Amino acid sequence: MPDEPRVVFTPSGRRGPVVSGTTVLDAARGLGVDLDSVCGGRGICGRCQVVPVAGDFPKHGLVSAIDHLSATGATEEQYRSKKGLATDRRLGCMAAIRGDVVVDVPPESQVHRQVVRKRVEVEDLVIDPVIRLYYVTVTAPTLERAAGDVQRLLAALRDEWRLELDVAAAAVAELQSALGAAGGAVTAAVRDGDEVVAVWPGYWERALGVAVDVGSTTIAAHLVDLASGTALASAGRMNPQIRFGEDLMSRVSHVMLHPEGADQLTSTVRGAIDELIGELVDEAGVDRGDILELTVVGNPVMHHFLLGYDTRPLGEAPFAPATDAALDLRAAELDLAVHPAARVYVLPLIAGHVGADTAAAILSEAPHHADEVSLVVDVGTNAEIVLGDRRGLVAASSPTGPAFEGAQISSGQRAAPGAIERVRIDRGTLEPRFRVIGVDAWSDEEAFGDTPATGICGSGIIEAVAELFLCGLLDADGKFAADAPDRTDRMVADGRTHSYRLTESVLITQNDVRAIQLAKAALYAGVRLLMDHLDIDTVEQIRLAGAFGSHIDPTYAMVLGLVPDCDLSKVSAAGNAAGAGALIALLSGDARRDIERVVRSITKIETAVEPRFQEHFVEAMAFPHRSAEFPNLAAAIDLPARQQPAGVRRRRRSREASS
Ligand code: FES
Fold this sequence. Notes:
The protein is of the alpha/beta class. It has 18 helices and 31 strands. About 50% of the residues are buried.
């Protein structure tokens, strides 16, 4: 056997000679290979599993053989029989290198492993754990050397892991009892590579985290294993603040009228998150005390309510937030009953009107890493919009109001069972058919039966208005056509105008159309302002985030001109992008640094003070737009002919041409 056998690690490709007898784990450390370990090479944790590969490797100039690693010893056998170890695997800390060998490090043995997840729409994330566990043996105190528990733990971590750390005050009592219970062998949780935040007696392998997305309507939370990224449970509930006001501004108004009520709004949202945590740990069968890390995202108002900041400045110009920086808080400060040393990372706000939820959406959608110019739109009471590519991002909030959520619509309602969510109008007979949430069949199918429609939700009203426009009952200015009542008896007199009777109880009124026009014009004008700032006339990709974005049909959104023209195959729902971003930030310290850097670099546009906003708004009142062309849309569907007003000049600049 050679004195200095060579080892090659895959997939990293790192290689080098080692002293014969070096363990695979030590060789990996020496060569900078990402191979995990919690127990420090004691054969307890099983995180260091590797797969030796036999064969001739001319590329590496060596012949690798399984028996170039030392034979399996008693500790490894014990691990294999107690916890199970695949036959082709070895514990890297137990297998010594005796000859040339190629060793594969499987993904689950890497600290910075990749997670592929479907449940909360996070894919291909490389974990960069904020919390890591280290198993150490702390020497017992003696009369001669009666150093404190904290000092002896730190010495052990220094000796065994070469870590220079502090110990969080909240972990000291836990350390005392852990040492008492385990005779010196403990597992320490280290946060951010600089502080011990928790200590368990003996070997411990569970550190959990919770990602929370605080929406104005719903709050969602996900419980994950911080080391593997495995989702253990998810839970969601209505935001109980709704009793103080349906939309955000009415909650802010409530506080303006009743300043003493602010605490109540804060305790309500904190209480709801704490209850969600209770649901998560019950579902996963784990302990609240195992939760060491949380991340929170939310719009600026929810962010301020949760943190106990005054929300009133967010309701009036210049809309200054209390802070727009990322925050690192103790969970106890937010009244969350988890591990006493657990921390809460709050993503940064982008501006007083563009929140941490949008920062999270940027993290998950990554427009700042894309070559294509992407538009990310999250429609709620305000539309939060981000536009750009790897060269830079611009962001703004547009005052769409709650019409897209079904509010301000005569028969409008929240997206809930019974609400009309899809609408089609026959181009010949002008008769409608529709679908309601909770029933798969269309209203003209037998299976629909006599299902009652209780109202119409945001996606339903958008489709209804778009269909009325496409079949010529509405003109491009959003007025019911003069001949509409002659063409169908679905048009019913309504004061000085008419309404379209979708069902016996659900009418689409002229005011409903107007409310949608105002909302969509605000959204389009905001997007157009951002395009002006980037000096572009087209966007290459559109991602519609949030619940609204998931339900809206991109074609109808474009027919009405909510968003600019774009290749329809490049317009898609982003799902719960904010929740996905919260999860990414929970699992990756790198991602936190990334989003903090990006948020600082974003150009923030305040629509309220931009002189061109009003101009864009007026132009955008028409369907799909007064002057902008929609060639991609026109190629996909038959749009009613439009009269081009004289003198409208199209700007035709590309960003490339101008940059
Ligand atoms: Fe823990 Fe190998 S490092 S079993």
